[in-house]
Amino acid sequence: MGKNFNIIIVGAGMAGLCAANEAASLGAKVLVLEKEKEIGGSSLLSGRFMAFAETDLQKKEGIQDSSQLLIDDMLAVGEGKNEAHLVEAYGKSQLETYKWLVEKGVEFHAVRAASGHTVPRGHTITPLQAITTLYNQAIATGNVTVVVEAAVKRLRKNSDGRIQSVIYEKDGLEFVVKGEQGVILTSGGFSKSNEMLESFAPQLKNALRIGGNGNVGDGIKLAWEHGAWVRDLPYLQGTYGFHPTADGPRKSQAHAFYKGAIIVNKFGNRFVNESISYKLIGTEALKQPDNTSFQIWDQTIMNESVPGDALYDFDNLLQLGLIEKANSLKELAQLIDVPIEQLEKTIAKYNEDVSKGEDSEFGRKTLTHYFGKPKQINEAPFYAMRTTAAMLATYAGVAVNEQAQVLNPFNEPIDGLYAAGEIAGGFHGAGYMTGSSLGKAAIFGRIAAKSALAKLVTN
């Protein structure tokens, strides 16, 4: 293998592989370094949603959406803490990227409504199919070399101050390679780094750790050494919806609350508006006594189970013994060890409010964000799932601009350094719209490649 390439990409998940394909299409010679044995990273553990608007799948279902509505939803869910110019760049490129992925062979199966959606826009994929397809497409160009079990240790600048050289280890040996046009970091976040989580998010000490094994923040440290600024660290939150037995490969996840379930603590009391971002719900759940909460729903909601869906396959979780089923609320309360009278009182109050069209306790008006109408919980049998928050992804990281250039504390680009995917901060702010993580990985992976290779293409 030669030592010089046009571009070096650190990380072979959704962002890295999209960057590699885009770079190869521009005629670049590309090296992708992946420290794990297998490609994919946290992208393989994702909830399978990608947020796109105005697609053929939406039109087929009669769903009216737009790039502007998608942008507005992301900013609303992020409570205005996200960088508007990054969200707008997402909106500008999202439909073209969806079509590009389809052309590459990525299969989209259905459209679902999920957290932060005014209308259904969660385009479901099978992560392994998507990652494998993008990998095969990249290799087939003849311009992309992928090296696994290659841990990047440091980045180095050339005499002009441009980041070009990458030092990595493989099989106990150290190698130095050069990316003439720069380096793209697509190495994920730090959901598996107890050190970094304790430093930046001590409030998440009770959250499960189920992110990709390689997500220990090493990519962020590579950028920090060269002056990178960071964004969104104050908004680090766990993802709500996981059964306590979830460990990553076993997702054991349900979002019945976005279908109409309520969430209660060990005392049978609601404590949150169930329609808000599951990141914000997770923050409130971790504050509950003994870190214990339950999703509660009835047969009407159970009938909306979607086989094979990452968030809505309730029947599968029931078969796995992770959901309790009872013919009465009294029996259900006994099964989950919640005070019977209080659970019945909570549900009676909720049902009364639903009938009046107003949630007097927490202001719930929809199923999720601005989509759907709450429904009463009154049709036996009844169901409950013990649920907690997990650190699946950190959604915070190095500062970037709309060209995916990494920025220093003065908002100046660090010459030769780009970032895309989970490692990049500023997109999500205080909340998170389902599907925007994989979406931004694909969109900004491509943008990073175009930016890095702009001069090569011009010449």
From TrEMBL:
Residues 7-438 form the FAD-dependent oxidoreductase 2 FAD-binding domain. InterPro entries: Ala_DH/PNT_CS2, FAD-dep_OxRdtase_2_FAD-bd, FAD-oxidoreductase_2, FAD/NAD-bd_sf, Flavocytochrome_c, Succ_DH/fumarate_Rdtase_cat_sf. One of its GO terms (molecular function) is steroid dehydrogenase activity, acting on the CH-CH group of donors. It comes from the Bacteria. Its cofactor is FAD. One of its GO terms (biological process) is steroid metabolic process. Keywords: FAD, Flavoprotein, Oxidoreductase. Belongs to the FAD-dependent oxidoreductase 2 family. FRD/SDH subfamily. NCBIfam families: flavo_cyto_c. This is Flavocytochrome c. It comes from Lysinibacillus antri. The lineage of its organism: Bacteria, Bacillati, Bacillota, Bacilli, Bacillales.
